[in-house]
Design a protein that fits this description.
The structure holds 2 protein chains of 2 kinds. By secondary structure, chain A is an alpha+beta fold. Chain A is about 20% helix and about 20% strand. Chain B is built from 4 helices and 17 strands. Chain B starts with a helix and ends with a helix. The relative contact order of chain B is 0.10. About 5% of the residues of chain B have low confidence. Classes of the chains: A alpha+beta, B mainly beta.
Chain lengths: ~160, ~260
């Protein structure tokens, strides 16, 4: 499989600065190949025009449960994003790596369950100054955690 | 000799395709690429190498565009039609996505050529008129000005697909001389926004490169009318002078044509 050379994947003029916070429109659109359900959360649009938070659907353990997640990209790419489960609700979640519900400042009216993706902060930073790499790393890690539960995690036991 | 043997021997004789026929379906083996794009991503095109024709589901998996969130995606051809239970062969262009691609409302199709003016439409108490000529099947070119029963050189600027499957096209008249294609008093159509904003066709460069300067008075009054009646993508302008050295034009906006 080859990518046509004549047409660039991303126009250079729309390429955001490396340190520009949030998810650019092009980065968000690139997510839609594997996650067509991804939508921007408009109130969390940042001053630079980037997306601060998105809602995405992922399939995970057990029995191919459909998780609707809110991902906080406000500190991306400097910091690792945070993911919260919106549905299913806390009492229906059987995944050991998802915390019990809490109120977070991202959406104070909603009860959200944070997802523990493990101690991957150093690996996230080791991907270098490449926004796309960091985004891919995080999304793949999140998908891997939802699909492959780690029973030694104490997130759900507390 | 059975029909199957006869058919495969003919194909092998010409050495074009390697054909396998089973009782259920025909698979044509041929080396090549299928150009695959994504409905949501404008500039992403992938060449998927294929050795045989594929079904849409197979192509979605092979192109790596199978969603991971359980969403269902479909294949669409380059015209936006759903490709369903049809084999896709090399050389085809396919778009993958959850919804069909948006059909372009306005298609750019600049063309020059001779045109017979069949009819005219008068308006504004018969003081002004549009000339019309058929340039294509179901496509009529509209030119500002009265050129009834004449054969003139025209430049087609834009095409608009209409709801009744017909195409409405807009353009203007060019004079035969490449050095001076426009004369004083000519009516032409220009785009008011976009890449080729206020540009006229130049036969010397074969592109939209003649710069149009709108007279100050006309420009101010046009802005006023725009506030009252709304923006118009195409402006009809009247040429006041053409500078063949600078390749530029001084003109004023014809509000009766633009806001008909």
């Amino acid at each position: 499989m080859t990518i046509s050379n004549s047409i660039p994947l991303q126009k250079s003029k729309t390429k955001p600065k490396w340190s520009s916070l949030g998810l650019s429109h092009e980065e968000f659109i690139s997510l839609k190949i594997q996650y067509p359900s991804a939508v921007k959360i408009r109130p969390w649009r940042l001053n630079n025009g980037h997306v601060g938070a998105i809602q995405i659907q992922m399939i995970g353990y057990p029995n191919k449960t459909k998780y609707i997640l809110i991902i906080d990209f406000r500190e991306f790419p400097i910091e690792m994003p945070y993911a919260y489960v919106r549905t299913p609700f806390d009492d229906q979640i059987r995944h050991p790596n998802i915390y019990h519900n809490k109120k977070y400042e991202l959406a104070p009216r909603l009860s959200l369950c944070s997802v523990c993706i493990g101690d991957y902060h150093n690996q996230f930073l080791s991907t270098g100054r490449d926004r796309r790499k960091r985004l891919r790393f995080y999304i793949h890690q999140l998908q891997a955690v939802l699909s492959n539960p780690n029973y030694s995690d104490t997130a759900r036991r507390n | 000799m059975t029909f199957y043997e006869l058919f495969t021997s003919i194909i092998k004789f010409f050495n074009i395709y390697d054909v396998k026929i089973t009782t259920l379906h025909v698979t044509i083996h041929m080396q090549g690429y299928i150009k695959v794009g994504h409905v949501d991503i404008k500039d992403l095109w992938i060449d998927v190498p294929v050795s045989s024709s594929l079904l849409p589901e197979e192509l979605i998996i092979k192109s790596g565009m199978m969603p991971r969130d359980g969403s269902v995606v479909y294949c669409y051809n380059e015209y936006g039609n759903h490709v369903f239970q049809q084999s896709i062969t090399s050389g085809d262009t396919i778009l993958i996505g959850t919804k069909p691609p948006k059909k372009k409302k306005i298609t750019k199709n600049p063309k020059i050529g001779k045109l017979n003016i069949n009819s005219i439409t008068k308006f504004h108490n018969d003081k002004r008129c549009w000339s019309k000529g058929i340039i294509d099947i179901n496509c009529t070119l509209w030119l500002p000005g009265d050129y009834e029963n004449s054969n003139i050189l025209t430049f087609e600027l834009f095409r608009f697909p209409l709801n009744n499957d017909k195409i409405h096209s807009k353009g203007y008249r060019l004079h035969e001389s490449t050095e001076i294609p426009y004369k004083n008093g000519d009516l032409v159509v220009v785009k008011s926004t976009g890449r080729d904003k206020l540009k006229l066709y130049d036969p010397v460069t074969n592109s939209l490169s003649i710069v149009v300067h709108i007279k100050d008075n006309s420009f101010i009054s046009t802005k006023k009318i725009t506030k009252e009646k709304g923006k118009r993508f195409l402006w009809t302008i009247k040429i006041d002078s053409f500078n063949s050295k600078d390749r530029s034009v001084y003109a004023s906006v014809e509000r009766h044509y633009t806001w008909k």
